[in-house]
Amino acid sequence: DLSTAFCPFPLSGLMSQAIADLGFESPTPVQSAVWNIWASAGEAHPNLMVSSQTGSGKTLAFLLPVIESIEQIRKDVANQRKTAAHSEQGASKRPSGKRRNPFNPRHFVTPQPRALVLCPTRELAQQVSNDAINLVRACKGPRVACLVGGMPYAVQMSRLQNVDLVIATPGRLLDLADSGSLDLTQVKWLVLDEADRMLDLGFAPDLARVDEMTQQRAC
Ligand code: AMP
């Protein structure tokens, strides 16, 4: 079973498929180290500070547990909704299955991501977000959005609709959070990728503000 050979906590079938499709057969040392701690901590979700070189597989080390946890929340929410719909009398109205036009302001609902990855540069954010999209592609569930400077506001807002995982540079993220276009209070997992570089680039005050906005975090 690939799932147990690759990772010490159970992976959803679709995630196992995504890993197999990527051709990954065994975890790298940083992945084993992070996932073993994650698996043995259960619901306690420890804060981790990891130092590992580029090319060592660190991106998957944090993306895999974060996306699996998001998937679990999504399943729980869907089950709660199902139970609620069953118990509601006359709840025969079915969703049309049509996707609402995200550019129509009337359809705008403030996005509430469950997880946030901050990166020092636009290039790194785009790279991490490509890795994340490769993982969720097979799951068809969690939605990923990359928020970096230079993208038109309307496009960015449409990509944020129903987002679960946001990958961003700090400045652009705070622009949207400050204007009320993004609600960070439901963020459970915060990852600071290349944290040392973000501090070198003077992002410390921004990181402190994000920390304050995400006080409900598990880690
Ligand atoms: P990173 O250190 O996150 O930049 O990853 C470096 C490269 O290793 C990326 O191209 C990943 O796709 C690849 N990679 C990550 N995890 C594994 C794995 N378990 N087995 C093989 N390749 C991997």
Describe this protein's structure.
There is one protein chain. The protein is α/β, with parallel strands linked by helices and about 220 residues long. It contains nine helices and four strands, in the order ααααβαβαβαβαα. A four-stranded parallel sheet has the order 2-3-1-4. α3 (about 30-40) runs parallel beside α4 and α4 packs across α5. The longest helix has 30 residues, at about 60-85. The radius of gyration is 18 Å and the shape is globular. It starts with a helix and ends in a 6-residue tail after the last helix. It binds adenosine monophosphate. Adenosine monophosphate binds near residues 31, 55, 56, 57 and 60.
Present the secondary structure layout:
Layout: H1 2-6, H2 13-22, H3 29-41, H4 58-87, E1 115-118, H5 122-136, E2 144-147, H6 153-160, E3 165-168, H7 170-178, E4 189-192, H8 195-200, H9 204-213
Parallel strand pairs: 1-3, 1-4, 2-3
The structure holds adenosine monophosphate.
